[in-house]
Predict the 3D structure of the following.
Amino acid sequence: MSPVIEQLQSLNRILVKLARRQPFHGANFEEILQDILCTSARSLNVARVSLWFYASDRQQIECVHLFPASGQGLTAGMKLTASDYPRYFAALQEERTITAHEAWVDPRTQEFRQSYLEPLGITSLLDVPIWVEGVMMGILCHEHVGPPRQWTVAEEQFAASLADLLSLVVASRDRHRALKALEESEARLATFFQATSEAVVIHEQGTILDVNAATERLFGYRAAELVGQSVLLLTHPESRSLILERIQQPTDVPFEALARTKSGEVRIVEVQGKSIVYQGRWARVVGIRDITQRKTAEQKVQLAAQQQQLLAEIALRLRQTLELPEVLNTTVVEVRRYLLSDRVFIVSFDPSTEEIQVVAAAMAPQWHTNLEALLQNVPYRSQLLTTPAPLSCGQESLDSHLRQVYEAHHIQSCLLIPIQHQPQGLCFLLGVHQCDRQREWQPHERAFLEQLATQVAIALQQAELYQQLAALNANLEQQIAERTGQLQQKMSELEELNRLKDIFLHAVSHDLRTPVLGTLMLINHLLQSNTSDTIAVPRSTLTCIQHSQQRQLHLIDTLLHIQVDRQPSLSLAIAPTSLATLVNDILADLQPLLQKNKATVNLQIPPTLPLVPVDPIQLRRVYENLITNALKHNCPGITLTLIAEEQGDSVYCIVKDNGVGIPPEQQPHLFELYYRGGASHLRTGIGLGLYLCRQIIIAHGGEIGGQRGGFRGSDFLVSDSLSRPNLANRQAAPHCYP
């Protein structure tokens, strides 16, 4: 598992433990704040965590708690004014988190540099606004001391979740204070009520005998309208059986019941009776206290606690999975179970392609519909895509076109909650349909879905990050495999280069040594045969020395030309040249070698052949290499055939012999550098001749190759294009056809 995913899961576990560790009620508000700030500082490993609350004028924030990681305790008191730090206060209203990796230069926080950041050594800030019921109440600030810090996505999400947790704590504190104030008010009223203000009804076996003014105010009846009537007139139908039971079996223990006023309004009342003697007969005096507000507040607190518990459970399940489909399916199932709605679905929208589709849905069987067809309806599609904030609507609030769509799909009430609404990137939206009746979506239901949407968005980002990491791992494995293959190929090439180097060194040492030894042998023979100061040297000896040195020079020049040829191309000195004259001169120079090998030359180059624009020196090298190769690789007595003929605009030059021939497996490699065939260990030479021939012909713009014909030996075909009108402006274009 990657470090990013491990960090996400670790911080999620800390968050869940923190939520379970502290009950949300106002009695321990300061203890909860200290626990949250301490946990935040240690989990994110920051030097300081502070909590700031807005002043009543919304133009100033005050540090109410500052927790240093050193553990020296909480301090408070510093104040910041919006007029002094306008960019920071504006950013708080616009952004979910202020993630300043380098706070000194970040435009949102650089206003604090001289007065706050530099004196305290703070280099990075992670600030999260705290919102309670749509109003920003404060800021949770994380301050890092030391080198600038790159906050991770997991740390941003953790800080945002802590801010949400603080908003719950603040809301719970406010509700607790309101409830406590209400209870204190009811206690004071009860004391006063015992005397005059509490509704008091005196009845005999359920028949009202008398009421006080508070009863008239509570129920809306005049006293004359109630006297002589049954107490059931003031009783809600759901509590009639309970009241009848208390009439038949009186008890002094207080109990709760539902009352009904003259206007039909339902009230929750606390009833306590006592038997007294009234006007000389036993009766029951009953005190009735309206506790509707208190019960409503208690229900809200209980409902909020249930919502937070359910939200924590759902968030935990969402964050335990890294698969996007499972996150979406869990969300729609849990929302439908919580709201008891008929349809819940999530759609995704890609702004770049305008593609919209249902990615998860949970529907009651009797209200199953084709959501894909619904999304293709232009009015409904427009309503979905233009919903950057929660939207609640019923049929009565729609135009005629959209009302028809709602009726066709049995939509009585619709609730739309954006999960992730971004101008760029994939957007998600949660939709809820009520099909069996008109439904007024309650504020606590919408608040629950908005909080759940935040958790789902975090889970979606977590799943997306996991998918990116998986793709990155797969791509990394592929790159490793490719790099491994490339390294293996390079190793093979290096091994081949080492082999060629060994061949080259061996060949150079052999071929360059041979002419030198021949020259030394002739010189030693002359010195030993004559001891005088002057030695008469026969012309044949000088000729042998000359040939030996020319051969050595030829080999050296060949090596130099090979090195040069690895650069752009050979440098040519083009001149109109007679092939017949050039070949005759070459044969004359090679006559000693031809005689030594008892070779016969069949010359078929007519003197009337037109002049060709070539470099005669370089073309001489081609002929010399081809002829000497034929003599070197065949037994004495071969016949060499040299042909040059005009064909169209070209002259084709052929050098062939009737020798042993070239094996088929070696023919593709004839013109490669340092290639010497399968029996190279039995031959001399460095394998440069044919390679040099090819480079010379290519430099002329022609081609060279081997051809197998009626001869037993090897056929080499060279062609040079003719230039009849202007030899100075035409260059040779040799061609080769295998």
Remarks:
- Confidence is low (pLDDT under 50) at residues 564-568, 678-686, 708-717, 720-738.
